[in-house]
Backbone:
């Protein structure tokens, strides 16, 4: 787990520091604050904890992960972002933070938590597209959730572990995309 966090930190630092015309150098990556990278890693780590709590139908762990995610968003250091990234991050942050807060404050109501997880997952997809990912992530889709409208989620494992259906239908879904480091 420490290796995963360190990988996230260094990769996000590298990607955020090197957004200048596609020129990516290790020197630029080392000049970026490690606080920013660790806070970005904390956001992704909290999201993955949240997803895993839902796969186990655990509303209390989901609430704790939602609260952890709110703290991680607040700790994110935007200083190294370009003005365009800053604006995009701010748009994602406002929406995602609200969904994480709802999940965190609704232990005991997993249906409501999952409704917010649906929207939060779209925000996290956008965030990973904006900042990149230090690890391979999978974009999975549950076709049945939300009255067959479907919903996506990000996963650190290739096997389908459905957070929307939990233990009822744990393998329902399909891989839609890979987000490569």
Residues:
């Amino acid at each position: 787990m420490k290796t995963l966090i360190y990988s996230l930190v260094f990769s996000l630092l590298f990607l955020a520091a090197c957004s200048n015309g596609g020129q990516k150098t290790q020197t630029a990556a080392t000049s970026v604050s490690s606080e920013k990278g660790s806070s970005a890693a904390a956001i992704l780590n909290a999201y993955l904890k949240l997803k895993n709590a839902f796969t186990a139908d655990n509303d209390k762990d989901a609430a704790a992960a939602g609260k952890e995610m709110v703290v991680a968003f607040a700790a994110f250091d935007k200083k190294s972002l370009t003005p365009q990234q800053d604006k995009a991050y701010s748009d994602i942050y406002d929406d995602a933070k609200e969904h994480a807060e709802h999940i965190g404050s609704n232990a005991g109501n997993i249906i409501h938590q999952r409704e917010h997880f649906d929207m939060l997952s779209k925000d996290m997809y956008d965030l990973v597209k904006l900042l990149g990912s230090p690890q391979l992530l999978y974009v999975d889709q549950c076709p049945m959730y939300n009255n067959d409208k479907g919903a996506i989620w990000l996963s650190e494992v290739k096997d389908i572990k459905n957070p929307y259906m939990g233990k009822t239908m744990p393998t329902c879904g399909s891989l839609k995309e890979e987000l490569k480091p």
Remarks:
- Confidence is low (pLDDT under 50) at residues 1-36.
